[in-house]
Design a protein that fits this description.
Layout (H helix, E strand, L loop, with lengths): L1 H15 L19 H15 L29 H5 L10 E5 L5 H9 L4 E6 L2 H13 L9 E5 L13 E5 L4 H17 L5 E5 L4 H6 L3 E8 L9 E7 L3
Parallel strand pairs: 1-2, 1-4, 2-3, 4-5
Antiparallel strand pairs: 5-7, 6-7
Helix pairs in contact: 1-2
């Protein structure tokens, strides 16, 4: 138990410092070869600190919602937003929307790190929505946002509020569903013209997003080296028509 606790502390330090989580980084009385345990601890360490349950993956087939264009729940890294979206870019007039919010990790990060006027997480699975709501109710995070809510809805049926200004995507859906969701974002922005930022983690459908001609790439944030799309966050800004 002491070894695991020490390893967890080392993982937490490395994560907070944004160090690569390699065996050479972690020492608890000598090098600790963690492999799968290292990755598990990295997912759990902040959940324990913040009093939430967001770390475990969930396949939509568990809830009878499997679909070739819908992706299983995989939590984005804590810190994904703060590395991609400067706090100075956000005010109390901004509204954050996470499409495919899962257990609510990124909505909670948005609500605790930024002064958003409102934070909304939209999730297809009622079970995951309830977990997100429980996380919101029990979190030890100090929330800065004016309000936080989790909505159980299919993105294809959800009416995007016309004051949403930041949208987060963690590769929640692909193909025609992704294209339809982007069309709904654009329609909202055209009804109520405003700046709109998309923060896209694991941007598998970037070609579709840019192919609309309405978004421009602003910045890319990578964890580690290489050009692999997974683990990468890309930020886009809407072009006005």
């Amino acid at each position: 138990m002491a070894l695991v606790a020490g390893a967890a502390a080392a993982v937490g330090f490395a994560w907070e410092a944004q160090l690569p989580l390699g065996e050479d980084v972690l020492h608890v009385g000598g090098p600790v070869v963690l492999r799968g345990l290292r990755q598990k601890l990295a997912r759990l360490v902040y959940d324990g600190r913040y009093g939430v349950n967001t770390a475990d993956f969930a396949d939509l087939s568990e809830f009878g919602l499997d679909h070739p264009e819908r992706v299983y729940y995989s939590p984005a890294h804590w810190g994904t937003l703060r590395r991609a979206l400067p706090v100075s870019d956000v005010s109390e007039h901004d509204v954050f929307l996470d499409l495919g919010a899962g257990k609510g990790r990124m909505a909670l990060e948005a609500a605790s790190r930024y002064p958003f006027g409102r934070v909304i997480g939209v999730e297809l699975s009622p079970e995951l929505t309830e977990i997100a709501r429980s996380n919101l109710a029990g979190t030890r995070l100090r929330l800065r946002a004016g309000g936080v809510e989790f909505v159980h809805s299919d993105v294809l049926e959800y009416d995007i509020p016309d004051n949403v200004s930041v949208v987060f995507l963690n590769n929640p859906f692909r193909g025609r569903i992704f294209a339809a969701a982007v069309d709904r974002l654009i329609a909202s922005a055209d009804r109520s013209p405003r700046p709109l930022t998309v923060v896209y983690f694991n941007p598998v459908e970037e070609a579709c997003l840019l192919g609309t001609g309405r978004f421009r790439h602003v910045r890319t944030v990578r964890r580690g080296t290489g050009d692999d799309v997974f683990g990468t966050t890309r930020v886009y800004a809407l072009r006005q028509p």
